[in-house]
Write a structure and sequence with these properties.
The protein is an alpha/beta fold. The protein has helices at about 10-35, 55, 120-135, 170-175, 180-190, 200-205, 250-255, 255-260, 275-280, 295-305, 320-330, 350-365, 385-400; strands spanning about 45, 60-65, 80-85, 95-100, 105-110, 140-145, 155-160, 165-170, 195-200, 210-215, 220-225, 230-235, 265, 285-290, 310-315, 335-340, 370-380, 400-410, 430-435. The N and C termini lie far apart (about 120 Å).
């Protein structure tokens, strides 16, 4: 049999494909380039001065305006919230972040991996990491889901109330990716509603306006929080901060060991979390005091909701004025809880803040029984633990009382502390025995 080598001439189509193959390969490479995720090296650089990268390499996430080499990268050349590549003086890439030329903290590092920058993908990943911790710690979905820098999402706070989320965007960088934040939360949690509670004073430092609005669904005016054995109704849009203070949860639950059978005074009570928990633990009588009429109404409603209305009363008034009146009436309490707002909001307020804490604790000790328990807390970052102990000691000596520190309280684990960022640790609470 004779085999014939058949090799026909190529068709016009085949010739065209062979001729365009190198260009097709090159076009595919270009298409892949434009489709690939943005990297830190693709962003505008923010150069630091020599040796000013030390805080970042030690683990912190903040860059101050005086640490930037403004000769190479003038801050005025950036838009508030713009994403940048943060570089050391020698050009070494430290990571990506965002910048605000109008703020003292002019940049925040978001990712040390040059392959990842702030966007929906990174937000989803960080949210999943944060969620994994909270689901390990809490059976019910009531907690702080995101705590800013400590959860590697600087400028973002998210509190969870079941299927409703309350979000705070405190920096220009997070405000710029607001839609991506909402989309990431939708993807990770499938909430029924998201409230943007952006009325915190810190936004003014970033040049941002204050507003409160729904970003998803129909946000209820009030929500229920489940904490230990208690159920509490809180106001979301009209309440303080995000509506509830999850940070004090472990301290409130610990109070029960000291409250059984006791007469208790809860100052700055807000919606009655401390007082209702004490009543649930068996306190004989609890008197709650808050300056807000709305908070007082919620205290009474929460007491009834938890079946302790007969043990809990509420009074609207200024804490200092109420303490003056109680002393004049010779009232005495076995347990007093002091959980005031921050008396030292800024470092410059430390002197007057210390005076306020001392006066408050001193007045509280004057309405305590012979052998009583004082729970004294501070959410002022600029007030150190040793300063609060010093305040307690000075107050006790002034009223001729002996003081024993029994326990120290901290913020809950849904407010994790970043070891390189001392600003993430702010809450202090002392359980003290006060003796005549």
């Amino acid at each position: 049999m004779k085999f014939i080598n058949y090799n026909p001439k190529p068709t016009a189509v085949a010739k065209w494909a062979r001729w365009t193959a190198p260009w097709a390969h090159r076009n595919a490479k270009l298409n892949n380039f434009f489709r690939r995720p943005q990297r830190a090296m693709d962003l505008p650089p923010l150069h630091l001065k020599r040796n000013e990268q030390r805080r970042l390499t030690a683990g912190h996430l903040w860059v101050y305006s005086n640490e930037v080499d403004t000769a190479r990268t003038p801050l005025t050349g950036f838009l508030p919230g713009q994403t940048v590549c943060i570089e050391a003086a020698d050009g070494r890439v430290l990571g990506s972040g965002y910048v605000n030329p109008h703020s003292l903290i002019c940049a925040r590092l978001v990712s040390r991996d040059p392959a990842h920058v702030l966007g929906r993908s990174l937000l989803v990943h960080r949210l999943n990491v944060a969620l994994a911790l909270r689901q390990r710690l809490y059976e019910a979905p009531y907690y702080r889901l995101v705590y800013g820098e400590a959860d590697a999402l600087p400028g973002l706070v998210v509190d969870r109330y079941g299927d409703v989320l309350v979000v705070q965007l405190t920096t220009a960088g997070m405000e710029r990716v607001r839609d991506e934040v909402v989309a990431a939360l939708e993807k990770v949690l499938r909430p029924s509603a998201i409230l943007l509670k952006n009325d915190a004073g810190v936004r003014a430092l970033e040049g941002l306006p204050a507003y409160v609005e729904a970003a998803l669904g129909e946000v209820p005016e009030q929500a229920i929080v489940m904490e230990g054995p208690g159920r509490f109704q809180v106001s979301l849009s009209g309440g303080q901060k995000t509506g509830w203070f999850y940070d004090q949860r472990p301290n409130r639950l610990r109070l029960g060991a000291y409250a059984k059978g006791m007469r208790m005074l809860d100052l700055f009570s807000y919606v009655g979390a401390w007082g209702v928990h004490a009543a649930l633990a068996g306190a004989a009588e609890v008197r709650c005091v808050d300056a807000s009429a709305q908070a007082v109404d919620l205290v009474l409603g929460n007491a009834e909701r938890n079946g302790v209305a007969g043990q809990v009363s509420a009074l609207q008034g200024d804490a200092f004025e109420v303490l003056t009146g109680l002393r004049a009436e010779r009232e005495r309490f076995d347990v007093v809880v002091l959980d005031p707002p921050a008396f030292v909001p800024r470092k410059k307020n430390l002197k007057e803040g210390l005076q306020a804490y001392r006066r408050l604790n001193q007045m509280a000790m004057q309405v305590m029984s012979r052998d009583a328990i004082l729970v004294s807390a501070s959410c002022s970052y600029h007030l150190r633990r040793e300063d609060l102990v010093g305040v307690l000691n000075a107050a006790s000596r002034h009223v001729d009382r002996s003081l024993q520190v029994l326990e120290q309280g901290h913020q809950g684990p849904d407010h994790p502390v970043h070891p390189a960022i001392p600003e993430t640790e702010y809450l202090k609470a002392y359980f003290c025995r006060v003796l005549r």
